[in-house]
Design goal:
The protein is α/β, with parallel strands linked by helices. It has helices spanning about 175-180, 245-260, 270-285, 300-315, 335-350, 350-360, 375-385, 390-400, 415-420, 435-445, 470-480, 485-495, 500-515, 525-540, 545-555, 560-570; strands spanning about 1-5, 10, 15-20, 30-40, 45-55, 70-75, 90-95, 95-100, 130-135, 145-155, 165-170, 185, 200, 205-210, 265-270, 290-295, 360-365, 370, 425-430, 450-455, 580-585, 600-605.
Amino acid sequence: MQMQHCALPGYAATALVRTVGSGSELPRKREIEITMRFAGGPGRNVKATGRVKNVLLSKMSARHSLAARGLSHTPLLGAGLRARGSGTHMPVQAVAVPMRPMDTPSPAKQTIPGDHMANAKAGLPDGVNSMVVDRFTLDSGVEMRDVLVAYSTYGTLNDAADNGVIVGHSLTSNSNVHEWWPQMLGSNDPTSSKDESGFCLDTAEDFVICCNFCGSPYGSASPVTVSPERSDAGCYGADFPVFTIRDHVRLQKKVLDRLGVKQLRLAIGGSMGGMIALEWGATYPEYVGQMILIASCGRHSDWAIGLGQVQRAAITSDQSFHDGRYAELGSKPERGLANARMMAMLTYRAPSSVDEKFGRSFTELSCGSSIYAVESYLRYQGEKFIGRFDANCYLGLTASLDTHNVAAGRGDYREVLQSISHKTLIVGIDSDMLYPIELQMELAQHLPNASMHTIKSPHGHDSFLIEIDSLNETILRFRRGLNPSSAAAAAEELAASCASPEERDRVLKVALGDALQTSEQSVKEILRLNLKLQAMEAKLRATNIPKEELCELCTPSLENLREMDRRVVERIRQKKTPWGSARVAKDTSGIECEHTHTHTGVLPVVYGNLAEGEGNWGGWA
């Protein structure tokens, strides 16, 4: 696709595309042709025409997907163009948005995403199924009867009943996968090749199931559901027992048995859901095919246990808590629950992104006084949370996290991990404070058939609910039998663009040489090399730079990975970055830009959801 006059001083090339829904329940990807025209400042227009892949056709109610509202935030910077909508031709009109002047050297502030379940409310969500398990005995010995389990399903169980995919949700999510992983769930075109993008959870081939955890207020048995043991038809309240991670898995197995699932292709989940996925593999090794463990761990660390305890203390110290009997007294420990959520939100983020966003700025209150903007943000998140969650539920679920230890009752921790032989993808986040990347490296080191991918993001732990597009591509590659984002995958990308077999062999030899000499390297060194090459591949794949140019970028300095990485970074800075700002490359690499700029500062690029009034600077949305 060719674009004209793309360098627009003082303007961000951004379009909001509105289209008509397709009527499909779930999204479907296809290729369309699109023509876009937008204003480039006073008296200037730019027109771009080309073919666009990965168009999302959807009418589903994904709360944080622009596609759910028929809108797409489409940056028009560089030679590529993406859109979401429906139909085969979409003429649209968009206007360049004036931003901060280009001669300002400081970068634009970043947007911190908020609560991914912001619009939820307690109770069984719309469209969610439920079943009752007659009797169930917990690891603690507590016997429960008439246990209610809420669950969501997508796709169809095949005749062999062996296409099941179990998804574990995060601590405070519900079972509606399409609400918090919308870009990962949908029906792929059966004629597409392995190299084409798609949905990693393919409802055309997979029968996807997600069970709401017991103890959650979103439909399953919990402190806010009626207890069959009470003659007054009252709720469990403080009497609801703590479920271990293993309890959740054993109960979910009963649900899958009732649904007729004979085999799981995959167990996948992020955070608490990743613990669930690992326990699936350990408890039912013959039943589960593969595992994908995202931002998770093999056992809950003392650091995470301590963070949970501080949050629970905030709730139990609220004067309205009344030993958990607050519902019977007509009160709620709202202040304590809000404080617990504020603490948790900080652990879900990263210090650098919080500092970058707020910069010690202030927010004025209605009374005329002011507070730090970060305080206002946290208070707002706390207030939203008490509208959708319950204090006893939060106490029970965080206590459930603390029980996680895949080796409990099975033997030595490392030996137990080594006995779990499933093909496994481990995904870590480089800025994760809650479950630091060392915990995922530990899993990758001891699980015998595991590979590891690192999400490079400033958002911290919740990046697996934010950087969904890149996560989807990584998982899709893994499920298709390709290298998700490893040293081998990076080498293959380079080798595929080589002009001759001799050059290809040289690329593979140099790029993979260190990784192949496993007998001479420690596990830590191999992981370090993999992480380095993963980062390089992610940077390359995030752009639309032609493969021929990638070869030119990387071949001259293959002997030195650090130099190659520097050259790649300089070239990518000419494109829009995933975080929303693009920098002009310094003239040190000898590579000419498609669009030359005389200023070496930060290019103004709109990020965020313009339809909801977000943007780099107030007043421009």
